[in-house]
Amino acid sequence: MRKYTQTEFPDVHGSTCEAQFVSPTELSAYIDKELPAWKRHLIRRHLKKCATCANQVQRLQHTDDFLRRSGEIKVPADFLSGVMEHVSAATKYQRPYDSLWSLITYRIGSSFGWTRYTSTLTDRLRYSIRTRSPVYIFVLTFAVFTMVGATLYQSSSDRFGPAMHALKKTQKLDGEKLISFEVIQHEPPKRLLTTYLQQK
Amino acid sequence: MFVSDEDLMVKCGKGDMSAFELLVRRYQNPLINYIHRSIDDYQRAEDLSQETFLRVFKSANRYEPTASFKSWLYTIATNLCRNEIRDRTRRNTYFFEDMVEEGEDVYHADIMRDTRYLPDLLLEKKEQRQIIRKALAQLPENQRAALTLVTYQDLRYEDVAKILGCSVGAVKTLIHRARQKMRKLLIKAGIAE
Description:
By secondary structure, chain A is mainly alpha-helical. Helices cover 71% and strands 0% of the residues of chain A. Chain A is elongated and about 135 Å long.
């Protein structure tokens, strides 16, 4: 378990745990039974030895007891009837669809008996985002990768495209030069020989 | 046979009004108390509770049984409370000092019928409850919501984290700070040692 420094251990009365074994936040969670069993066991053992922490727990529990004494207010007798009235008034004017698309999906869904399609497309999308559904995450990741890929591909062709074209052109030119050089190389010896003979 | 909240919500989504009525009966008391503790105004707490149930009914067909109904209900209620507090701050109106404690009166009248308590003790208890409620109202919004949900509604830290939209670690810290602050306020008011 992590040990806490004294500055992390604020206390109302200024006292601190000498062993610095448990953080006050964990003591609060201990009261609410929100810690795993092994941690609860360790804290229980520590509380038997450490008077400061035991005192802290006692004080927190005392505050909790006070809070529970604040009492509860009673629900008015006509509350339920009021809610049901509101609900029946709302259902009276409620449409199962609120756009053309939802009307179409509603018609299709109801004809096939798919109750899930009674909700609109925007509602379903909002629900997918909220629940982080795997299909939604896959589609989103695919879309992002495609967009990034397309952008990179385009930019690389923009960046290297002209250079590549220039390179191809020079290669062509070199080929042409080579051919002409071969032609020149074959002819001169004949000319040279004839001129030499003529000179003689 | 006990029917779970989630099953009732599914039935409600199919238009079963009796299922919805049963849900309202189950949660009307804890919900109105939660909202009352959050905004500290009895009349508005009643209105907001009705609004919460209405929203639950309207979005019943979108409800998926994988999510806990209790968390969902308190999420709606918490959002409504936040809006109410924001509107109140915008209007610059504070109810805590000179509000009419109608809810308190209902509870007090109920105790008065109980002859086991002496009048002095009753007054003391009433005063104590008011101090606790005022101290609770002085807590920051998130700390109050977290403490109320854990102490009074018996929700797990995980559910509270979902409702408040934060991590479980943040909820732990919020609750601890709320308890420390409550303790200070109660000591200041003279009802705790």
